[in-house]
Structure formats: structure tokens, C-alpha cells
Amino acid sequence: MRILAIETSCDETAIAIVDFRNRNCVDILSHIVSSQVKLHAEYGGVVPNLANREHQKNLVPILLHALRESRINPRLHQGQESRKRENKKSFDSLSLLLDSILAREPVLLRQFKKHLTPLSPPNIDAIAVTYGPGLAPARWVGVNFARALAVLWDKPLIPVNHMAGHLFSALLQESREKDSQFLIPNSQFSMLALLVSGGHTELVLVKKPWRFQIIGETRDDAVGEAFDKVARMLGLPYPGGPEISRLAATGDPQKYPLPSPMINTKNYDFSFSGLKTATWHLARNLRGLASLHEAKPRRELTLRQKADIAASFEKAAVDVLVKKTVRAAKEYKVRTVLLGGGVAANVVLRAALARALKREWPRSTFQVPSSDLCGDNALMIAAAAYMTGKKKVPTDVGTDANARLG
Ligand code: KG4
Ligand code: ZN
Question: Residues 200-228: what's their mean pLDDT?
Fold first, then answer.
């Protein structure tokens, strides 16, 4: 089965074209992630309307590149003009349909009509797209683009939950034989997935394929969001996670004891806003700001202080993630533990979770994506679509800001 997958739920425009030989092996024909991070960094975070504009501009060129790279480049029809003459009525109704599907994406619509409508359908079996969760102006572009392609090429459209994508990214193992191949080992159930990203922090139990049950989640900030906000406090650029991680590597995690909220509660929920606030107060105190009304710091933080704050914050966040994940793994006697999402790239978290599982729940296998598959990408969307997808008619697919697994 050959899938074209599209991901635009945040600030990466991503397209992948992959061949599933079977449930255990996938060949990557094209896998492109175009990051808008530099643009958003100027504003210190993702600006939804800017993301919308960039997705509109980028999707058609990236798709054309992906089609060329995958060598399933569809042939040009004899030309739009002759096509128009051949079947004027169906061309007109297709054009009207595209106008209505992409009515809110005028830049994309123009490029779509110019570059894609003249192409014959490529050799793919289905189109997969992230329908949520994510930023509304961002995910609608991807969904409407996918709907338009599904109509143009008459292909089934598979809506995919973004968090399911992160979960499946942990199941993809790089093949030793071929660079462009990933293996998907037979899954051992039950599974437990810790999904940590900029918008989510959740523990997902998968007792059998593919029934997802969220057994715990954050009650306030996502852990990635906390990394981004603490980075901002320390004057580090967006996205803050990798910056904190780099700085923390040179700091002392024991220097400032910061709280790991909810670490001892019996449930599997998380909370990171208290940790974020405690880090904020710590940084203010070190700057010599005693009262909340004082605005002008008496001194700047030294690089050493910043590194120690970063390391202490990272430790407090990782401790609670690891402790709750291991406790859940033991309680549910899971055989596989997965880690996924942007924060899964964090080396301290990866190592700490691996160590704790080995020590306390050695019966489980621990699987993490390679670092470059932790962030948003379309390969994970293709994998989730293939493993869990039900084919739906294109007009059924909308988007959902609060899409949940389960
Ligand atoms: O999954 P993702 O790419 O996008 C969302 O779905 O949100 O996750 C992005 C988040 C950001 O908050 C980013 O700061 C964080 O992942 N992140 C990290 C690291 N790399 C990315 N957080 C901690 N350590 C990292 N190395
Ligand atoms: Zn994500």
C-alpha cells in the first residue's frame, strides 16, 4: 500500500510518500519536513496565521518535490487546454469543487490549479492527513489540501490523530540494510506510550491493537511548553526545548531543588505550571528581584547560573515523567513502553526512562524514535494511517482542535 501523508498541525510543513510492503516493513520514497522555526523564532513562539500563510505557500512545491523524488511523478495531461476541451463540463465542476474546498486558502488554491490540476493521478493508494489536535489555521490548510487532492485524484482520505502519529513514530526502527527503509517489529501488547510534545503530555495505554486509552495527562501546561517558557525566562530562543537541553548538559541538576508537581499523587496526571512558576521565582531571586513589583534586575544571570537552572528544571520535569511512566508500566504489566513527541528528543529523558525501566520493569521493551523522528513529520502520519486507518470519503474529513486518542 502506497500512502501520501501530509502534516501541518503546527509549524512544520511535512509530506511523505511511503510504500508499506507489509505490516513490518516500510520503504520511504520521500520524506520532507520544511520547518518554519526560524520565522516564528522572531516572535518567540508559533504565530498561527503566519503558520497558515507558510503552509499555503509551501505545500504545492513540497508535494511536487516529493513526487519527483519518489519517482512516481505523475505525467502531465496533454495540457490543461486540451483537457478543458475534451471534457469541459467535468473540468468546470472539478474547478468549482476545488474553489469551494480551498476557498479559505487562496494562495494555495492558485498554486494548486496551476501546478497540480494538469497532472494525471500519481500511483498512490491513499492520502493521509493530520486532522487534529493542532493549531486551527495550520491544520485546516493541510486538511483542505488533502481533501482537494483526494477529489482531484479520486483517492481515499485517511484522517490521522497527530498524537497517534507520535506514538507510531516510536515503532519505526531504522533498517540496517537500507537507509530508506524502516522496520516495524511485531508489537507486544499491552503497550504504554508516554507522549510529550509542545501541546500535550499524556500516558496512553494500548491493551490491544489499536485501542488507545489515555490514563493520565497534564492538567495545565504541556511539558514542551514548560521547556519553551523556561527557555524564554533565560533569554534563549524559540523553540526552547533543545536550547535548555544543550545548556543543561553543562549545568548541575542538583544545584537548585525545584518541585516535580504531582510526583507522588496516585493518579497518572501531570502538572507543569507550578514547576514553571517556581523556576521563574528562582531566576528572579538570583537576579536580585525581591518583590513582584520590582522590574529592573539588580544583576544579570551568569552563564553558570543559567546552566544550573536549566539542568535543575530539566531534572524536575524528567523525574516526574519517568516516575509516573514506570509506575504505570508496572501496574498495567505492559510488555512495551514507547516514548514519542518533540520532547522525546531530550537525551536526559530518554536515558533516565531507559535506566528506570531496566531497573524496575525489565520485562518491558523500551522503544523510542530516532531523534529526527521525534519532531513533527509526515512519515509518522503515514505509519499511523496504515496501522489504524479506516478509509473515509473525503467530504467527511474536517479537523478537530481537541482530537483525543481513544
Ligand atoms: O511534537 P512537537 O515537535 O510539536 C508538537 O506537536 O507540539 O514538539 C515540540 C516541542 C517543543 O516544545 C520543543 O521545545 C520540544 O518539543 N523539544 C524538546 C527538545 N526538542 C524539542 N524539549 C526538550 N528537550 C529537547 N531536546
Ligand atoms: Zn507533535
Answer: 97
